[in-house]
Specification:
The protein is an alpha+beta fold. The protein has helices at 38-48, 154-165, 185-199, 206-209, 214-226, 232-235, 245-257, 264-271, 275-286, 290-308, 315-321, 327-338, 342-347; strands spanning 3-8, 11-16, 23-26, 33-35, 53-58, 65-73, 76-84, 89-95, 101-109, 112-115, 121-123, 127-131, 137-141, 145-153, 180-181. Strands 3, 4, 6, 7, 9, 12, 14 and 15 form an 8-stranded mixed β-sheet that branches.
Length: 349
């Protein structure tokens, strides 16, 4: 087995991965793992969630202590983690790459900061935060705290997305990388996780007894609709109805070529139907015209780029890369869709 790096105190050490996991059986929480040993904590949590470096810092005689348990529910695993500082303390976690895994975190209590390579965004109790697959992740706990995490492999998340949209995945699914309040549909998702967590404490779990992947479909479907992502324009009004071939072909073409200059005549040729039929199909299944659908795809991509962009990027560069040639119209459409100007999104990234 490969060794993994852990940080203990101020020293770097290498330890072998633990050969056993701490996951509960399907539909049941595992017993609690309780420890002040940084090495054991890092190894166990690293195996169950993702490889990472871990540092516990405390000036107290009693060291930082972690309480952790996990449970499996088909494509999902849930992780319940709490830290006790016993006064002043800090826990620093860094993940170089999430390795094909999405991790949704709900802060139940405690002072935390999160981010990509640097933990620079406040993550408050009552907020939810999604870590994207294959992205870096940094977190700092600065007080006693507790959180629930939902881990989903990228292929399982994409399979759920394809079921909801009726379209193949043309580009990686990317969630908005900022903590957000548990309001609206996100509040419903948080309540569902509360119910699920309590259910997993029961000797006979209702969720685990559901047929096949019913529970996973319910939870992932709500998660995809509750948290903003680059497919949100497709998920705003999902339908289980199978979309006609000409509608699917045109939508797939838009996703594959959205940065390119595109005309309605081009989409009509791809779809192989009349303009009227294409308009009617898009209105029925997506609620917008084909060209409005194209604009929304471009706007969603631009927003994600502005939120995750490097410091040298500009609004102009992002707009051009996403297929917008008229910056004034881009700014107006962006504000209408997201309630702020592109420059404001860039400044807040």
């Amino acid at each position: 087995m490969l060794d993994e790096t852990i940080v203990y105190g101020r020293e770097i050490a290498r330890i072998p991965k633990m050969a056993t996991s701490h996951a509960g059986s399907r539909g049941n929480w595992s017993s609690y793992f309780l420890s002040s040993d940084t090495k054991k904590t890092q190894a166990l949590v690293g195996q169950n969630i993702v490889d990472h470096t871990l540092e516990h810092r405390s000036s107290q005689k009693r060291p930082v202590t972690v309480r952790y348990r996990s449970a499996s529910l088909g494509a999902l695993t849930l992780h319940d983690m709490a830290y006790s500082m016993f006064g002043e303390g800090e826990v620093a976690i860094n993940v170089e790459r999430m390795a094909h895994v999405y991790l949704c975190e709900i802060n139940l209590s405690g002072d935390m900061k999160v981010g990509l390579k640097t933990a620079d965004k406040a993550f408050q109790p009552g907020e939810i935060y999604m870590i994207n697959a294959d992205a870096p992740h940094a977190k700092i706990w600065r007080s006693d705290g507790r959180q629930i995490m939902i881990k989903v492999h990228r292929k399982d998340m994409e399979r759920a997305l394809e079921k909801l949209t009726g379209l193949p995945i043309q580009e990686p699914l990317m969630f908005d990388p900022h903590p957000r309040p548990l309001t609206g549909m996100a509040a419903t998702f948080g309540q569902m996780i509360d119910v699920l967590s309590a259910d997993l404490d029961l000797e006979t779990s209702y969720f685990a007894a559901l047929p096949d992947d019913a529970a996973e479909n319910l939870i992932l479907g709500l998660l995809l609709q509750a948290l903003p992502n680059n497919y949100s324009h497709l998920l705003a009004n999902p339908s289980t109805t199978v979309r006609p071939r000409h509608v699917r072909h045109a939508a797939e073409y838009i996703h594959a070529h959205s940065p390119d200059q595109m005309t309605l005549d081009e989409l009509v040729a791809v779809a192989g139907v009349s303009k009227r039929s294409l308009h009617s199909g898009f209105r029925k299944y997506y609620g917008v015209s084909p060209m409005s659908y194209l604009r929304n795809v471009r706007l969603d991509r631009a927003r994600l780029s502005l939120k995750e962009t490097a410091s040298e990027a500009t609004v102009t560069k992002v707009a051009l890369e996403c297929g917008f040639n008229h910056l004034g119209k881009f700014a107006g459409a962006y504000r209408d869709r997201f309630g702020e100007l592109p420059s404001e999104t860039l400044q807040g990234s």
